[in-house]
Amino acid sequence: MVSPNKGQLALGPGILREAPLGSLEPSDLSTPWDPAWNTMGYTKDGSKISYELDTGAVEVAEEIDPIHIAINSRKLKVAFALMQLTATNLRTAWNGGTITAGTGIVIYEPPEPGEEVRRMLGFESSDGTERWVFRECLQGGNVELERKRGSDAANIGNEFMLAKPAPTIRPFAVILAAPARA
């Protein structure tokens, strides 16, 4: 039986980061993130990590219950809405593109179909007791920018799908503080 322990609660939205594929990953909770990892700024409602299994029952005529539950596929996602409308955040949301700086302006142009760039994503909790590294991500959701009146600021919605980056590398890793989060 697990004893109640408020030190194991995960609170706050944390900090989101992005980096090119293959960037150096953190290996602990105290070493600063490699400079390749850029912070992404404010979010509308924090971030959401989803893990979904599509399963199927293996049924035989001789048994009333399934004799096995098979896994057909797995969907891993990281979703968030970025509040800071920058060319860098647009490039992340649209999976690449070009940013050109001029005098007093920045121009962003999205990638051509087929030229999308996959990224790594990172998350660090506000209390420093957890870090997540998502190793190969492609933004596969709808990107919608709503403009409303008053204090409801525009935001850039993102829903990144995770892929297995290589046969021997898993899609993500989580670093947790021990013994508190063991």
What would a concise description of this structure say?
By secondary structure, this protein is mainly beta. 4% of the residues lie in helices and 42% in strands.
How are the SSEs ordered, and which strands pair?
Elements (H helix, E strand, L loop, with lengths): L14 E6 L17 E2 L3 E16 L9 E15 L4 H7 L4 E5 L2 E5 L9 E6 L5 E10 L16 E7 L9 E5 L6
Antiparallel strand pairs: 1-2, 1-7, 3-4, 4-9, 5-6, 7-8, 8-9, 8-10
- What is the succession of H and E elements? EEEEHEEEEEE
Can you tell me the residue ranges where pLDDT is under 50 for at least 5 consecutive residues? Answer: none
| DSSP strand content | 35-45%
How does the overall form come out from the CA principal axes? globular
**Portion in helices:** under 10%
| Total number of strands | 10
How many domains in all?
A: 1
Structural class: mainly beta
The largest pleated sheet is described as: 8 strands, antiparallel
Radius of gyration: 20 Å
Span between termini: 14 Å
